[in-house]
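CATEGORY: protein folding

GOAL: derive C-alpha cells
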Amino acid sequence: MEKIETSLQGVYIIQPQVFGDHRGWFMETWSEKKLANIGIDKKFVQDNHSFTVKKGTLRGLHFQNNPMAQCKIVRCVAGAVLDVAVDIRKGSPNYLKWVAVELSAQNKKQLFIPRGFAHAFITLTDNVEFIYKVDNEYSKECDCSIRFDDSTIGVEWGTSSPILSDKDSNAPLLTESDCKFVYEEEEA
C-alpha cells in the first residue's frame, strides 16, 4: 500500500497494490500492519456499504461529533464518485479547506479521512457502491451534517442541483450546525 499526500494535512489517498493476470486481479483493501507501516495506525470497528442508483446523487456533508467522532477509509467498488473531505476543526490552518478525489472501481483508490473532517461524495455514474471503514460506531445523537452548498466552504460539485436525501436537503449551514471540533496542535 502506498500513502499519497493530499493538499490537506492528515487526509491521504491510499493506493493498494493490485496484482493482475489473464484471470483478473487481486488486492488487499485493508491490512492493519501495512496501514500502520505507512502511518495510519487506527483500530477500525465497523464497515458500511451504500448503493446509489442515479448519477448526480450527493451524500453529505456528514460527520459525527465527539465522543463518537469517526475517522474513515472510503472506497468505491462499483461506478465512480467525487469524494470530498472538509476540515471543520476551528483554529486549524486548513479550516474550511477541502479536497476532492475521484474514487472508482477502476482506479481502486481509497481515501483516509481523519476525525474533525466532514465527508461527502457525489456520484459520477449510475449504480455506485461505496464502502466506509470507520473507527467508531454510528451514533444518532452525535450525527451531524452541513449543507452541501454552504458558500463559506464552497465545494465545487459540478452541479447546483444534485439529487439529495431529505436529511441533506434540510442540513444547516456550518454557522448553524452543531460542529464542535477544535484543532489541537498535536493532530498535525
Notes: The helical segments are 32-37, 166-169. The mean pLDDT is 95. The domain at 2-187 is CATH 2.60.120.10 (Jelly Rolls). The longest strand covers residues 80-87.
